[in-house]
User: Fold this.
Amino acid sequence: MTSDGAGDGASDGGRTLLTGWFSLVEGEVTAGDVLALDRVRQVLDAAGTSYDVAWSPRFEPRGRALDGIRPEDYALLVFVCGPVHGPRIAELHERFAHCRRVAVGVSAINRGDPALTGFHDVLARDGTGGQPTADLSLRAPRGPATPVVGVLLTSGQREYGDARLHDVVADTVRDWLAGKDCAPVVLESRLDARDGLLCGTAEQFQSVVERLDAVVTDRLHGLALALRGGVPPIAIDPVRGGAKVSAQARACRWPALVPGERVDARRLDVWLTWCLDRGRVAARRRREELIGAPDRADELVAVLRAPDAGGMSSPAPGLGS
Assistant:
């Protein structure tokens, strides 16, 4: 990229500002956009070109916000990825009128749109009438893989009344995950064969769980189905004083249990570290034990054939009893 056409006033003789929808407060930041940005950064780094990145403060509060940037500090502006249209991009042309402006890896929606025509050069991926080109994200440098953590929470269970801590648990887990380097996968265990965005069978749901590295859940079946798949869960009991989640953790002899009254980032950190290390082996071992352990269904036929005695029978023998 040359600085031909850039006006006077760039403080270091040609510094470049990288922008995109990830720079706009009202824009959204997608994984594809960020990977496309990483590809552009890779190219500029190899060329020895100095640059800054403008970030939306909603996504990166510590980044360089577009509204706080002095246009005169730059000679070149690059807009990376996404569709080029609308007044917000057109405003960039006005504000950075002295800069040479280039769009790269973008979609041209309307060739007469000032947002598009305001660029000196457009290296489009599609929309120009020519042969489309591969998206920049495809050649972006690959960073290290991160753990994939399933998140299965409930906001229901009104039957627990004033003992409910579900909202506290959900808020704590959400805030905690926001600071973790992991890929959260929001799980929904409700089945509906008519809704293409939900699992239609239990086997489909179990297939999702088995591909995870860990699970964070305040649901009994979140705990049970994670162990059934050999995946270590962090079980949080969302009922003050403990209820069915704690009981199931005891029945399965699973240690990664956090009472709702004591849930905090520190405890979740400890258990996630354990789950991603020794917990992997523990979950697989527990899975094998549970498959062969007795459960209450073993007693059902005898109870059905017995005279009607009424009442509640005593608990069945559990693991390790």
User: Anything to note?
Assistant: The first helix runs from residue 31 to 47. Residues 16 and 51 are 4 Å apart (CA to CA). The chain has ten helices and eleven strands.
